[in-house]
Amino acid sequence: MTVLRHVPALLLLLVHLACASGAPSPVPSAPAATPATLATPSATTPARSAPTASPAPSAGPSAMVSAAPAAAPAPPDSPLKGLEQLHAAMPQDGTVMYLLAYFKGEAGDRDAVYQWLDALARSSWDLGLDDSDFKMVAAEPRYQDLARTLNGRVTTVADAPVAFRLAERDLIPEGIAYDSKRKELLLGSLKKRKIIRIRPGGGVSEVIAPAAGGMGRVLGLRVDPGRDVLWVAADKTKDGQPPAPRAIYRFALANGALLGSYALPDGGRHLLNDLAVTGDGTVFVTDSEGGGVFRLKPGATALEPFIPAGSMVYPNGIALDAAGRTLYVADAAGIWSVDPESGAHRRLQPSPGVTIGGIDGLSMDGTDFIAVQNMGSSPRLARMTLDAAAGRVTAVKVLASKHPEFEIPTTAALVGAEAYVIANSQLRSKDETGQYLPPERLKEPVILRVRVR
């Protein structure tokens, strides 16, 4: 899910922004399909068998910080102080400047908003400005001049074809995965608490029924092909729906049967968002609102804290290299490399001119990241070159940006040399009471097909 759409959680997490050398104490550990509507394949999408997903690279981290320090550092006095400390450590990072401008606006400090937006304009920031993030000043000529400057840097790559257009307008999809055995895409619904399959020809049906096993609002999906299972991260229900826990679920892909569920205890701030699965079946899941990562070992009956709460700033996308030696976690400010055995982690550094903040979905293709970035005015899909030995992201190639179908893209599923991207999640399409709009006021969900190499 997107970053600046969850301000209360960020206000708590940003006090730990300067945690590159420490983290607070861990959070406690937790103890048949019906038909759906059809997807319309794009006329430009040829009929073909989908190739097997491409393997990821082998990489090893170095000079990492401890995942569990003996004593937690005292948090800064305010979220803004934490951001300022992170800026001192990363003075050229545009993502931190953007967040500083945003939170200064939330605090009502107009002069400081412009201070940080002016600094952003002097940086290499290339994701533009989202007017809704700066409502305090958005109507002012000075802001509009800055927005024109920054939005003018955005690269336009808008030729990716529509692979599928779904008839179910109120699906509100957030997570997508690829079932290589059946050559089908799997798509989760936040609103309807279900998972559908999309066949290569466009046929659509439910693979996991609504609220199966008590499942809540569906976020991340991850296929474990060796075990033929689907892992699902789901959040608590809202809007008067029957209650559901924050939990991850394991389903059999062959028949949709529930094989297990693993919930966090009720209470506290948590949002289980995205998942990664190792070769031995260990599952890692990001906790966006808690600011950490949980782990489920093979045979375990409960999630356990792996990276302590508050260590990261809204951790979201997560990916594992092919060798299983390094886990990568995207948070609001960038990407972390993590030792999947010890939990030791360090923040990757971007080379000058490289923007790696605001990532939602994260995958690996070869030695590179494939990332959906949705901060700023122009969400994009990007290929990011990783120098694992140096702990640095050295280059970004924009694969899709300013696409007419983009409306908060969230995640992508890699299928060979292509990524299938949720183009228009419509996460903001709500009325004044916070309810999703009725179907007649929503758009048909779109899946783009983007060449990644």
UniProtKB/TrEMBL annotation:
Residues 25-71 have a biased composition (Low complexity). Residues 25-82 are annotated as: Disordered. It holds the Pfam family SGL. Residues 173-375 form the SMP-30/Gluconolactonase/LRE-like region domain. The keyword Membrane does not apply. Keywords: Signal. This is SMP-30/Gluconolactonase/LRE-like region domain-containing protein.
